[in-house]
Design a protein that fits this description.
Blueprint: H1 2-34, H2 47-59, E1 80-88, E2 91-98, E3 110-115, H3 117-121, E4 131-138, E5 143-149, E6 155-156, E7 161-162, E8 166-172, H4 180-192, E9 197-202, H5 209-222, E10 227-228, H6 237-244, E11 248-252, H7 259-267, E12 319-322, E13 328-331, H8 353-361, H9 390-411, E14 419-423, E15 429-433, H10 445-468, H11 470-480
Parallel strand pairs: 3-5, 8-9, 8-11, 9-10, 11-13
Antiparallel strand pairs: 1-2, 1-4, 2-3, 4-5, 6-7, 12-13, 14-15
């Protein structure tokens, strides 16, 4: 009897399921009967409405919109616009330039900020010298979050600094000794940025006058007019300060050439006696009026290694420092091998002033081939010309060729953007960050189980090793007796 009752219940349940399955089919058939062409009755959106929606999404997107240097976005009570003065680890020190009039906030205040996560996802990097929009500001603790970055006028990679007006390539005559090829690498890197540069040679008191004259005439043949200076004897500091006034200058060079010492000497020409309460730290007319600020402390300096004759990397982060006569100096860590990432095979010749001048002097005559690399091709303008740095040009050209071939084989020629667009409601595109593949994906259960099995196998191997250990075997035998 119980078996029969179960079969009856099962039969009734199956019949009810069949009825439920037929319900949506009949509803779909009825809808097809009412609308045989299966055409959506939703009205088409207006073109003006779509344009307004696209503009709204572009300007008020969850992703940070692009801001030009002249934009003045509306600011809330917890927002301000400033310039990044220093970067260390994951923190940025921002000097406030403009802000709404609220209690506790003032222009020239220093904020310790972090970078918003969406900027990292879309790979919009924040550099020292950037003009930024800061939000979520706590005016009591002087903290905030960088929400957006204004477009840059200029940018350099080594070291990473934005909105640079001038480059100062600094080398020393001795300790460490001036090397022509290393100097050429730094000059080529500086020329590739397209930013005006000045070459300065420090520690002139360590060599005789004959050596200085020889190097000066040699560098003039390269196309440069160096400034000879010395921090110890104060030689050439006045002319150097006159060259750097009223502009943002980045000091680059190897470790140990005296970058921090030169910056300390240029900034110690005199501090003003009074400071206003509402002065702007980043305005040239008021930069010298901040007293008691940590930015007026001298930069750390170190001795050159007696064993290797090179510097010891005393400066470890990039910082933007005000000059007393107006303008700013960026103290940067020393490095001995510029990357030359922006230099290509075709643009390398333009980074050598002597080659550039030879090609310009021969106009309107040009090389026979438009892609001539000046390696002795038929009809090359430079064929038979004597240039001192020609071997350096060949060496750097081979290095760039190897790098470009490696990049072509590894990454290909197509590069995807950091932002992708999805079509949302009513055909409107919505922007979202393009995440790196397999980086933000959750680990699969299969991989987790496999890792657990690997750990168990390792534990079994350890057990086998313990069994084969003669010491453990002797201890077991003693315990057994």
């Amino acid at each position: 009897m119980p078996i029969a009752s179960i079969s009856v219940l099962r039969h009734r349940a199956a019949a009810s399921l069949l009825q439920i399955r037929h319900l949506p089919l009949s509803a779909a058939a009825a809808s097809r009967h009412r609308n045989p062409s299966n055409v959506s009755r939703k009205p088409n959106p207006s073109k003006n409405f779509l344009r307004a929606k696209q503009r709204t999404l572009r300007e008020f997107s969850s992703l940070s919109p692009v801001l030009s240097p002249d934009d003045e976005p509306p600011l809330s009570d917890s927002q301000a616009i400033g310039t990044v003065a220093a970067a260390q680890a994951n923190f940025m020190r921002v000097i406030v330039q403009s802000l709404p009039s609220i209690e506790g906030a003032r222009i020239g205040a220093e904020l310790l900020c972090v970078v918003k996560a969406v900027l990292k996802k879309i790979k919009r990097r924040v550099l020292v010298g950037d003009k930024v929009l800061v939000g979520s500001i706590d005016w009591v603790d002087r903290r905030g979050m960088i929400e957006n970055v204004f477009q840059r006028r200029t940018e350099i990679l080594d070291p990473p600094v934005a909105n640079v007006d001038h480059l100062l390539v600094l080398f020393s005559m001795e300790q460490p000794r001036l090397e022509p090829f290393l100097l050429t690498r730094f000059l080529v890197e500086a020329e590739s940025t397209g930013i005006p540069l000045t070459l300065a040679l420090n520690k002139c008191e360590l060599v005789d006058e004959e050596t200085l004259v020889a190097w000066k005439s040699r560098l003039r043949s390269w196309g440069y007019r160096p400034i000879l200076c010395s921090v110890e004897s104060k030689k050439g500091l006045d002319s150097l300060a006159f060259t750097l006034r009223d502009q943002t200058t980045v000091v680059v060079g190897p470790s140990g050439v005296g970058k921090s010492s030169l910056i300390n000497a240029l900034r110690s020409n005199g501090h003003p006696s009074d400071a206003g309460a509402d002065t702007n730290w980043f305005e040239p007319t008021f930069s010298q009026q901040i007293l008691g600020s940590k930015w007026y402390e001298d930069q750390r300096v170190g001795e050159v290694s007696s064993r290797s004759g090179r510097g010891k990397h005393t400066t470890r982060n990039v910082s933007l420092l005000p000059l007393s006569d107006g303008g700013y100096l960026a103290d940067t860590p020393g490095f001995n091998q510029p990357s030359l990432l922006k230099v290509t095979k075709q643009s390398l010749a333009e980074a050598f002033p002597e080659i550039r001048n030879k090609l310009k002097a021969s106009e309107p005559a040009k090389c026979s081939f438009s892609n001539c690399l000046h390696l002795g091709e038929p009809g090359c303008i430079l064929q038979g010309k004597h240039l001192e740095r020609y071997p350096f040009y060949f060496q750097l050209l081979d290095e760039i060729r190897v790098r470009e071939e490696f990049q072509r084989r590894t990454f290909g020629t197509k590069k995807e953007s950091d932002v992708r667009y999805k079509v949302g409601d009513m055909g409107v595109q919505q922007a979202e960050p393009r995440l790196e593949p397999k980086k933000h994906r959750r680990t699969s259960r299969k991989k987790i189980n496999q890792s657990l099995l690997d750990e168990l196998d390792d534990d079994d191997d350890d057990l086998l090793d313990d069994e084969n250990d003669p010491v453990l075997r002797a201890l077991r035998n003693e315990n057994s007796q």
